[in-house]
UniProtKB/TrEMBL annotation:
GO biological process, one term: vesicle-mediated transport
Residue ranges annotated for the T-SNARE coiled-coil homology domain, each copy included: 128-190
Keywords: Membrane, Transmembrane, Transmembrane helix
Stretches that traverse the bilayer: 199-218
Source organism: Nannochloropsis salina CCMP1776
Name of the protein in its database record: t-SNARE coiled-coil homology domain-containing protein
């Protein structure tokens, strides 16, 4: 296994952070033809392709990576949202480049009217969609925390039941051990009493023999 699910998550977090930083850089238009933000966007898209490929590998055998099928679906939605965000960034880069050169995307001069430029509208729309995605992620996180809370409560209740069962077992074992000790003492007493009884029988037989000998001797 060349990678783990945790490494995939960390890589996704780095791409997500880089996309947010890149969005801020696109907000400052540059007239240079070799805008470094454009190259960064291309690198991020390649990284997302790698995440998508690795996710396909995990989807084939989720158990090997210690994740469930629902986790795979959730990660697939994350990748989809990230691709959409990078697509908006690409559109935004074209819009901001047009603003920086004073022309529109079709090469005509930018309007000097009071309308909002297309690049700024794209950035505003992108921000709204990113905020919406973050709200959905927070909602999913809240649901996950609630599930963990419920599982914790169930585990606590089961632990209490198991603790009570162990206490009952301990009490039963102690009672059984006490009964065994009592039976052992009782058996010891019976054995001792049996030995004394045999001695008494021997003494009685010897006394009878002695009496018979005395009677025979006197006669």
């Amino acid at each position: 296994m060349a990678f783990t699910a945790q490494e995939w998550t960390e890589e996704y977090g780095r791409v997500k952070t880089s996309a947010i930083d890149l969005r801020a850089s696109f907000a400052t238009p540059s007239s240079s033809s070799s805008n470094p933000s454009t190259q960064q966007l291309a690198n991020l898209e390649q990284t997302v392709d790698k995440l998508d490929y690795r996710l396909g590998t995990m989807e084939q055998n989720p158990g090997q990576f210690g994740i469930s099928q629902s986790d795979v679906v959730r990660r697939r939605e994350l990748v989809k949202g990230l691709r959409h965000q990078l697509s908006l960034l690409g559109t935004s880069s074209h819009g901001t480049n047009g603003l920086a050169t004073g022309t529109t995307r079709d090469g005509s001069a930018a309007s000097g009217g009071g309308g909002v430029p297309g690049g700024l509208r794209t950035l505003a729309q992108q921000r709204r969609e990113i905020i919406h995605e973050q709200d959905e992620l927070l909602e999913d996180l809240g649901k996950g925390v609630d599930r963990l809370k419920m599982q914790g409560l169930v585990i606590r209740d089961e632990t209490g039941i198991h603790h009570k069962l162990l206490e009952d077992i301990d009490g039963d074992v102690e009672a059984a051990a006490s009964s065994l000790r009592m039976e052992a003492r009782h058996a010891q007493r019976i054995r001792e009493q049996s030995t004394v009884c045999r001695l008494y029988i021997c003494i009685a037989i010897l006394l009878i023999i002695l009496v018979l000998l005395l009677v025979i001797g006197f006669t």
